[in-house]
Amino acid sequence: MTPQKLYQFVLSEIPFLDFNCKTCKSAIRLTFPMKTLSANLQCAGCGAPFWYEGNSIYPLMQQLTRTLGAYIEKEADLAFSVSFSLVSPASSNLDD
Ligand SMILES: [Zn+2]
Fold first, then answer.
1. Fewest C-beta in 10 Å: which of 1, 43, 44, 71?
2. What's this model's pTM, rounded to 2 decimal places?
3. β 83-89/41-42 pair status
4. If you measure from the C-alpha of residue 61 to the centroid of ligand 1, how many angstroms do you get, rounded to a whole number?
5. How remote is the C-alpha of 74 from its chain's centroid?
C-alpha cells in the first residue's frame, strides 16, 4: 500500500478562486467576498474569452461564486462546516 497524506480544507477558508487559462496558463484571481462576477471575462494574458454574457457557463460561475460567498459569510453561525480533502502520495511536493 502506497503511503498517502490527506489534506483537509474547510470551505470557509477559501480566500479566492483562480480562473486559469488553459492556453497561456495565466490566472485571474477573484477574492472573496466577491461583489459581482463580470458577465464577460477574458484571459489577461492572451485575451481568450473565459465566458461572455449568454454563454452557458456564465450563470454556473455566478452560482458557484455566490454560493461559496454566501456560505463563507454564514459559516460562523452554522451548526456544521463543509470541507474537502486532497490526497497525495507521502512524497508529494505539497510538503514543500
Ligand atoms: Zn490566456
1. 1
2. 0.77
3. unpaired
4. 18
5. 18
